[in-house]
Write a structure and sequence with these properties.
Layout: H1 2-48, H2 52-65, H3 70-82, H4 86-98, H5 104-116, H6 120-128, H7 137-149, H8 153-164, H9 171-184, H10 187-200, H11 205-217, H12 230-246, H13 250-263, H14 269-283
Protein name: Flp pilus assembly protein TadD
Keywords: TPR repeat
Organism: Yoonia maricola
Length: 284
């Protein structure tokens, strides 16, 4: 008569033990989830506001402690790009792309690293592994730059146009596109592209400087009407002066150098040296 009771008690004990184990497992899982969230937040911080070299050390240590995790491998690769350690970044992105969980986004980032390393053929080969159905701003911007490097102008124009349509902030694309036009000697088109770049980002000094070069190449030596600081105005006058001198418009170049020196709020060494060189050549 005792056996049924004994079995019932045993079953109850086993059930209680199972419940206790289940509860412990749930707590452990919850703690793991919290740790993952905390770690993810820290990873995001290191990828954005952290010092690039500090981020490299962080992700290098994290990879050493937990190898094989693609999120940590990506973090290291992105940090190396930010730290301008180009060759190391290429190696890191190759590791990411070799991972079984790698995506087309990772392959685009590898192509970007190759472009930064001036390895244009490798960048092209990497982009060719990505299906044409994967259409992103970064992919087409890189495709355009690779086409530029090969002087495939029609392809470059097509890719630049597609990239512009895939972003709400196309200033960098227009600047690159304008520089491509400048390289081809299409100065009026280049001027238009740089103007478009400044329409989307009026603070981009590179586009301002390139715009001056495009105008100077057309012998238009007036400074464009765009927002600029006093220092920027002096620097743009210096750029315009050099463009004039290159085309043997020496008098205009000297006048622009004098204007640049007088406009700059501090001592403008580069403009002073250029003006002295011109005057010495004139004397000699």
């Amino acid at each position: 008569m005792r056996h049924p009771i004994f079995l019932t008690l045993c079953a109850a004990a086993i059930g209680l033990s199972a419940c206790e184990e289940s509860g412990e497992e749930q707590v452990e899982r919850a703690l793991q989830d919290i740790n993952v969230v905390d770690e993810s937040n820290l990873n995001d911080v290191m990828l954005t506001v952290g010092d690039p070299n500090e981020a490299v050390r962080y992700f290098a240590n994290a990879n050493a402690n937990d190898p094989g995790r693609i999120d940590l491998q990506r973090g290291l690769a992105k940090s190396l790009v930010r730290a301008k350690r180009t060759n190391d970044a290429v190696t890191a992105w190759q590791t990411v792309v070799a991972h079984e969980e790698a995506t087309d986004t990772d392959r685009v980032d590898l192509a970007d690293a190759f472009v930064r390393a001036n390895a244009w053929d490798d960048a092209a080969a990497t982009l060719n592994t990505i299906p044409p159905t994967y259409e992103t701003f970064k992919r087409y911007r890189l495709e355009a730059m690779v086409a530029d490097s090969r002087q495939q102008w029609d392809k470059a124009d097509s890719f630049y146009e597609t990239a512009v349509g895939l972003t709400t902030r196309p200033a960098t694309v227009y600047n690159n596109w304008g520089f491509s036009k400048l390289t081809r000697g299409e100065y009026a088109e280049a001027e238009r592209m740089f103007t478009d770049a400044l329409r989307f980002n009026s603070n981009m000094f590179t586009a301002k400087n390139n715009l001056v070069l495009a105008r100077g190449a057309q012998r238009n030596y007036t400074i464009p009407v765009v927002p600029m600081t006093q220092v920027e105005r002096a620097q743009l006058m210096h750029t315009m002066a050099l463009a004039a001198i290159k085309q043997n418009d020496i008098t205009i170049g000297k006048s622009l150098l004098n204007d640049a020196i007088n406009t700059h709020p501090r001592y403008f060494e580069e403009a002073v040296r250029a003006l002295e060189a011109l005057e010495n050549n004139a004397v000699n």
